[in-house]
Amino acid sequence: MKRALVVVDVQNDFCEGGSLPVAGGARVAADIGELLHLWSAHGPEAPAYEHVVATKDHHIAPGEHWAAEPDFVDSWPVHCKVGTDGEAFHPNLDPQPFDAIFLKGEHAAAYSGFEGRTVDGSGLTDWLRAHGVTAVDVCGIATDHCVRATALDAVAAGFETRVLLDLCAGVAPDTTGAAVAEMQAAGVRLA
């Protein structure tokens, strides 16, 4: 079984100091960065991933996803705008040994990494299958939004899916709890 790590939206705007910060985002970025360092070093403590990929919010003009008066359910403050520092990966992720980066949401809301595409147009499902991946670990920001959507789509696409909760940050306890319950009910394993 080939397993891949999917790092979801660990971007400046979703960490402390960003336009849509999630408490604990910078810590999660640092912890994932440590895991990536171990993986890229290929030492005895390296996690057993065949591939490591990432997703990014990559908004140009996502319509009603951005709002001057957001409801924080379907509309949000401007975030991860292409060409801004907010769209960049958080510096705590350095090094960034990603095999592929999937950009999502240029002109619409996009929560799942499976809605993203690489610069050459590959979707996440096809990319993982082309590389023989059958199982994924998902981590990143936010547990109750893009991590949840990515994990649910991974299960729906037939991948054995596990969410690494210690490497995730959620927006709020109630929505995070509901997301965790929904993922478990769909067959996502939690670690």
Give the number of helices: 4
Would you identify the regions where 5 or more consecutive residues have pLDDT less than 50?
A: none
CATH class equals Alpha Beta
The total of beta strands comes to: 6
What is the CATH fold-level name? Rossmann fold
**Secondary structure: helix percent:** 25-40%
Describe what this molecule looks like in 3D.
Pathway: Cofactor biosynthesis; nicotinate biosynthesis; nicotinate from nicotinamide: step 1/1. Its EC number is 3.5.1.19. Belongs to the isochorismatase family. This is nicotinamidase. The protein has 191 residues and is of the alpha/beta class. It has a single domain, classed as Rossmann fold. The protein contains four helices and six strands; from the N terminus they run E-H-E-E-H-E-H-E-H-E. Strands 3-2-1-4-5-6 form a six-stranded parallel sheet.
Can you give keywords for this protein?
alpha/beta; EC 3.5.1.19; nicotinamidase
